[in-house]
RNA sequence: GGUGGGAUAGCUCAGCUGGUUAGAGCGCAGGACUCAUAAUCCUGAGGUCCCCGGUUCAAUUCCGGGUCCCACUACCA
């Protein structure tokens, strides 16, 4: 049994995430985790909210809450929504946890012990009225290059030029609008990534062969340009306090570690939270000197996160000099777009995760977002495509198949798996289909090709409908109940198989099918036997029921309404 | 600007190292069936594989140039 550690990029605490965040990391990570569990592997699936940083502080102020209250509340909201989407995290942690604080401080100590940390003075914009240093993006002013008056400190939206906030003319705080800002010197800790250039490149060389091109090209781009030393502290109060060997670090009493330093460490922190809550052993998953040497670590994220996971986080782990588990396989996604544009809260463009669950059950979204995952390039979400996909794939192909065969079995065979009849040419045909398609399905999942896995799943469901057309049990019934019985028995077994293969993507519907057919948990795995035995797996004579209609079709009136409420078209 | 990716049927996309009639799903047209959520199954129409050159016996597939999209560009997370 293999051991597989799976992490999804951490959703930021700053409000409910939209469908793109779901589609680009949490959902595919969940589908993969479910698949691996069904293959019988030992899986640990970890996620958490990423809670530190300026946006969290500002959002708390806006909400009229302390940042602690705000984060707790938002964490609970995100946890509830994750549960609603049936994301099967073994643990959904918080980067503000005590476990993460201890780990982050320990990593900083180890890095400093290794001579990889240095104090440097930098010049930053301080807002007197806000009483805080402002991140580049939160300073605005006139662009020194093009004269655009609302240029941000990091980049000018007018001319696109990258800027240094200290160069802005007439700078002001984007937080309060105050113009009482000044440049102040401030001390920060820098992680000397430049000294780790060769070690990181060697490590990337070792792994990149197994990474998708999108991933390795981003990693090499950073390496080729030369790794820069990176400031890992910030002038904030909300975060992991800067320390040295367990004590506040002199001169850094009002500073915390930068959120990008502590956030990936929370993958480990959340595992420790899991261990503390469940009695599990977290080091067995993360320390190669304590049992993790045979773990396969798989990360899921949007492409904007790739550099941090291929370079920055590995720099932290490698630089510590300790035997930490590093990523083996990395799956990066492009963006899900809203009709080709960006999701936007302020402009009411796009559906967010909480609103989605109010419209329809999780399976509907899970199916569409997996079958249309933004794998090769950005992929658009449109109501038309969503409606088509759900109605055709789920309601017509799968739902109707299960409904037609179970109802027929109820009306003609007393709701039991028929006893009699021997397989013939039609059964040989579907066996041939399964013999080819089931291995292909598993191969697509192993390769983390989610669109292809969904397409193959659908193709198998569709083959079931074709089988029934060939076998025609309702026609044969008129002349030979025994001949009809073979078709019904095979059809019921196909329905059970369809429920099994549906589990990673649409777990609720799969459960409904499998329980209606009385399939016990041990018979639901992806370790398929030969096709013939798959088609005679349900005990003959056992009672089955017709599950309630699995998927209601999405009506035009609904999409018309949603277009108005959420934008689109 | 730099780097990377993309441009294939009406729509969304597959097409490993070049080779007979370029594929899938949806949509559309026709037919079959009637167990089923007016579902299903079959058949069909429809493409100068972005443009211009080049290499080759042969290019959607390789090379060069062009046009158009998109992403990333480290102190935003």
Key phrases:
569 residues; four-stranded antiparallel sheet; elongated; alpha/beta; RNA-binding; single chain; five-stranded parallel sheet
Give the topology, please:
Layout: E1 3-8, H1 19-38, E2 42-49, H2 54-63, H3 67-84, E3 91-94, H4 98-113, E4 117-127, E5 132-133, E6 139-142, E7 151-152, E8 169-173, E9 181-191, H5 197-207, H6 213-225, E10 230-231, E11 233-234, E12 243-244, E13 247-248, E14 256-257, H7 259-278, H8 283-286, E15 295-302, H9 306-319, E16 329-333, E17 336-338, H10 353-359, H11 362-371, E18 379-381, H12 383-413, H13 425-446, H14 450-471, H15 473-476, H16 481-502, H17 507-516, H18 531-534, H19 556-566
Parallel strand pairs: 1-2, 1-15, 2-3, 15-16, 17-18
Antiparallel strand pairs: 4-5, 4-9, 6-7, 6-8, 9-10, 11-14, 12-13
The protein binds one RNA strand of 77 nucleotides through helix 2, helix 6, strand 10, helix 7 and helix 9.
Q: Please give the alpha-carbon distance between the first and last residues.
A: 48 Å
Major sheet: arrangement of strands: 3-2-1-15-16
Q: Could you tell me the mean pLDDT?
A: 92
Q: How many β-strand runs?
A: 18
Largest sheet: 5 strands, parallel
Question: Which percent range describes the beta-strand content?
Answer: 5-15%
Q: Given the C-alpha coordinates, what overall shape results?
A: elongated
Helix amount: 40-55%
Radius of gyration: 27 Å
Can you tell me the residue ranges where pLDDT is under 50 for at least 5 consecutive residues? none
The helix tally amounts to 19
Class by SSE composition: alpha/beta
The multimeric state of the shown protein is single chain
């Amino acid at each position: 049994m293999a051991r597989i550690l799976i992490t999804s990029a951490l959703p930021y605490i700053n409000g409910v995430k939209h469908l793109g965040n779901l589609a680009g990391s949490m959902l595919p990570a969940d589908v993969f985790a479910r698949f691996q569990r069904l293959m019988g592997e030992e899986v640990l699936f970890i996620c958490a909210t990423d809670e530190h940083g300026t946006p969290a502080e500002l959002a708390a102020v806006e909400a009229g809450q302390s940042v602690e209250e705000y984060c707790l509340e938002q964490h609970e909201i995100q946890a509830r929504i994750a549960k609603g989407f049936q994301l099967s995290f073994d643990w959904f942690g918080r980067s503000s946890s005590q476990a993460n604080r201890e780990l982050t401080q320990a990593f900083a100590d180890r890095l400093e012990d290794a001579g990889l940390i240095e104090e440097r003075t930098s010049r930053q914009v301080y807002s007197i009225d806000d009483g805080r240093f402002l991140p580049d993006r939160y300073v605005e002013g006139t662009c020194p290059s093009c004269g655009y008056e609302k240029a941000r400190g990091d980049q000018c939206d007018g001319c696109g030029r990258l800027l240094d906030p200290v160069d802005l003319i007439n700078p002001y705080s984007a937080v309060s609008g105050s113009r009482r800002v000044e440049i102040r010197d401030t001390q920060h800790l820098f992680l000397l990534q430049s000294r780790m250039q060769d070690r990181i490149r060697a490590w990337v060389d070792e792994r990149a062969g197994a990474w998708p091109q999108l991933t390795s090209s981003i990693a090499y781009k950073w390496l080729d340009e030369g790794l820069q030393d990176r400031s890992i502290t910030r002038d904030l109060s909300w975060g992991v306090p800067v320390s040295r060997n367990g004590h506040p670090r002199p001169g850094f009493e009002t500073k915390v570690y930068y959120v990008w330093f502590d956030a990936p460490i929370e993958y480990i922190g959340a595992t420790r939270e899991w261990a503390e809550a469940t009695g599990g052993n977290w080091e067995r998953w993360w320390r190669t000197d304590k049992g993790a040497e045979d773990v396969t670590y798989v990360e899921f994220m949007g492409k904007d996160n790739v550099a941090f996971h291929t370079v920055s986080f590995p720099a932290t782990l490698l630089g510590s000099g300790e035997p930490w588990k590093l990523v083996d396989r990395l799956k990066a996604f492009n963006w899900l777009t809203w009709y080709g544009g960006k999701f936007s809260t302020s402009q009411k463009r796009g559906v967010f995760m909480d609103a989605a669950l109010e419209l329809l059950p999780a399976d509907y979204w899970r199916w569409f977002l997996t079958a249309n995952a933004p794998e090769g390039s950005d992929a658009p979400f449109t109501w038309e495509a969503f409606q088509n996909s759900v109605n055709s794939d789920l309601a017509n192909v799968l739902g109707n198949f299960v409904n037609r065969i179970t109802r027929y079995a109820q009306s003609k065979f007393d709701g039991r798996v028929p006893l009699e009849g021997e397989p013939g040419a039609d059964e040989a045909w579907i066996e041939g289909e399964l013999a080819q398609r089931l291995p292909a399905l598993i191969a697509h999942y192993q390769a983390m090709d989610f669109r292809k896995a969904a397409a193959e799943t659908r193709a198998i469901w569709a083959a079931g409908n074709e089988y029934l057309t060939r076998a025609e049990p309702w026609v044969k019934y008129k002349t030979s109940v025994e001949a009809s019985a073979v078709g019904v028995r095979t059809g019921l077994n196909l329905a059970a198989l369809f429920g099994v293969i549906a589990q990673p993507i649409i777990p609720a519907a799969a459960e409904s099918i499998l329980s209606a057919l009385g399939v016990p948990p041990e018979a639901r795995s992806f370790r398929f036997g030969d096709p013939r035995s798959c088609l005679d797996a349900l005990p003959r004579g056992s009672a089955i029921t017709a599950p309630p209609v699995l998927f209601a079709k999405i009506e035009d009136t609904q999409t018309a309404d949603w277009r108005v409420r959420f934008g689109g078209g």
